[in-house]
Request: fold
Amino acid sequence: MTNEMMKNQMTEINSETLFEKFFTTTGRIGRMTFFKRSFMIGLIEFFALFCIGIVSAIHEVAGTETPMWVNALNAVVIFAALIPGYFLNTKRLHDIGKDSTLAKIFLGVGILSAIHTVAIAPVLMSIPLIIETVVLIGFALYLLFTRGDENANEYGESK
Reply:
């Protein structure tokens, strides 16, 4: 590959806006792009949940009840991470040659998992939460390790 071709390809990749990277279902993304973008979302989600956890821990150490807004904020962060995750999953499925049906199913599973995470009685929800977590991790690993179509498919050219 010549330098000119590489420059054109890099310009094409870098011209994608933040919205196009995380909030559209058109096109395809490869395994490495999927990993990098998912990792970025996960890191932001982890940091936000860590900060919320500190607030919750402060209330526990002080012997006071954790305010309801802390649980609500926890749910908002989890739901906020699910949205770009759905779009990334859809693009990755497109790369494999599949439609977005699996992404929609696992968005629903993620929503259930988020609801269980902030449920009033988390002890009662622990078994379903474990099952949902295992299923979500399995789906993410499937998307991460399954090779995409090498040629163009109905969702676009291979990148």
The two ends are 14 Å apart (CA to CA).
